[in-house]
Structures are given as structure tokens and as C-alpha cells.
Design goal:
Layout (H helix, E strand, L loop, with lengths): L1 H15 L3 H34 L5 H11 L4 H12 L14 H25 L4 H8 L4 H11 L1 H16 L3 H7 L9 H11 L2 H29 L1
Family: Belongs to the binding-protein-dependent transport system permease family.
Main location: membrane
Protein name: ABC transporter permease
Length: 230
């Protein structure tokens, strides 16, 4: 018990002291997670909107597939991306393996279904009278789309926040295709795994404390945004 308390106290002091190595790790995590969330939002929000706003054969099947992909294991995504960017594969000449770009690609693939599914849910909950009223007032399809997006903005924002929370805490993709290179591709979760293997619990606990704080903050924002959209 004393060991745990001493380690926890040392970890808190390390986090408060803004240790350079710790800041580098957190910076890499925030950079790749923010980038992947931004790209996934650019893809997932329009994709989700088109599905929710359109009527076509197989729509329910497509939505079911997206819901299934929400449980996609990160190691599966890592393996898939690795098969395309490894040295002897199709994109091997691009030298993406063990780079931040590789992590961003993998994380983007992981959360596009999440953003799209949450966007579909947010738009589907809207009263259809918004669309009919906009059309009655002379709005074209693009203007109607903007009206619907504006009304669903809180639900869509919740989708983006949830996606960021998903990637900031993932470890499989970052480890498999990022390589856990110090100062370059080492994220919070991969550093925690490494420090645990080395028996260096103080840095691991400090990183865990920061990750827990980030997750807590993300959930507060997520619940606030969902509450605004209710």
C-alpha cells in the first residue's frame, strides 16, 4: 500500500513539474488524435448526413454494418493498415510505417464509423417538419441540408467528442503501426505499456493520471453537449 501511495504521489509531482519527456508524449497523443478526429469528421459527418437524409435500398443494412464497426478491435485496424503500408506492400514506397501519419490513418479508419453512426442518430431524431418547412419556404436541397445540420449540431458535436475520446485511449493501432518511437510516435497509451514492462511505474502512473483526466474532461464535455441537444 505504501508503494502504491508513494508511486502515485511521485507521479502527480512528475505531472505537475511538466517533465519534458512526459510533455512530449502527451503532445504526440494530442496531435495524432486531434488530426485523426478532424479527418474522420470531414468524412463521417457528410457520409452520415447523406445516409440519414436519403432513402435507398439497403439503407438499414448499411446502418447495421456501421453499428457493427463500432466494436472494431484496434489491433484489427492496425493489422489492416500494416498490410498496406509495410515495406513490401502496395504503399510501401511512401515510407508511412512507424510514423505519426500511419497512426493518423489507422485512427481515422477506426472512428469514421463512429462519427457517421452518431451523425445518423442525431439527424434521425429531428422532427421531419424541419425539412418540410424549409422546402415549403423555398429552400433548395443545399439550404435544407444546412438547416438540418444546424438543428442537429449538438448531436454531431457529441459524435466528434466521442470519436476523440475513442482514439486518445487506443493502444493497438499506435503500437502496431506507430512503433512506439521515443519522441516521435510514442503516445500516452504505448508509453504506459512500455513503462509497465520496464517496471518504471512512476511515469506510467503519471501518464495514466493525465489520460484519466483527459477522459474525464471529454466525458464532461460529451454529456454537456448531449444535454444541450436533448
Amino acid at each position: 500500500m505504501d508503494f502504491l501511495l508513494d508511486s502515485l504521489l511521485s507521479a502527480i509531482l512528475l505531472a505537475i513539474s511538466l517533465d519534458p519527456e512526459l510533455l512530449t508524449i502527451v503532445g504526440v497523443s494530442l496531435k495524432v488524435s486531434s488530426s485523426s478526429t478532424f479527418i474522420a469528421s470531414l468524412i463521417g459527418i457528410p457520409f452520415g448526413f447523406l445516409i440519414a437524409f436519403s432513402t435507398f435500398k439497403g439503407k438499414r443494412v448499411l446502418i447495421t454494418c456501421l453499428n457493427t464497426l463500432l466494436a472494431l478491435p484496434t489491433v484489427t485496424v492496425g493489422l489492416l493498415v500494416y498490410s498496406f503500408i509495410s515495406r513490401r506492400s502496395i504503399l510501401g514506397a511512401w515510407d508511412l510505417l512507424y510514423t505519426q501519419e500511419a497512426i493518423i490513418i489507422g485512427q481515422t479508419i477506426l472512428i469514421v464509423p463512429l462519427v457517421a453512426t452518431y451523425t445518423i442518430s442525431a439527424i434521425s431524431r429531428l422532427d421531419d417538419r424541419y425539412r418540410k418547412t424549409a422546402l415549403t419556404l423555398g429552400a433548395n436541397r443545399v439550404q435544407t441540408a444546412f438547416v438540418i445540420l444546424r438543428e442537429a449540431r449538438f448531436g454531431i458535436a457529441a459524435a466528434v467528442i466521442a470519436a476523440f475520446g475513442r482514439v486518445i485511449s487506443e493502444v493497438g493501432i499506435s503500437m502496431m503501426i506507430g512503433g512506439n518511437a521515443k519522441g516521435f510516435t510514442r503516445t500516452i497509451t504505448t508509453a504506459m505499456a512500455l513503462e509497465y514492462d520496464k517496471g518504471e511505474f512512476i511515469l506510467a502512473i503519471a501518464l495514466g493520471f493525465i489520460l484519466l483526466s483527459l477522459s474525464f474532461g471529454i466525458n464532461i464535455i460529451f454529456n454537456f453537449v448531449q444535454g444541450k441537444g436533448s
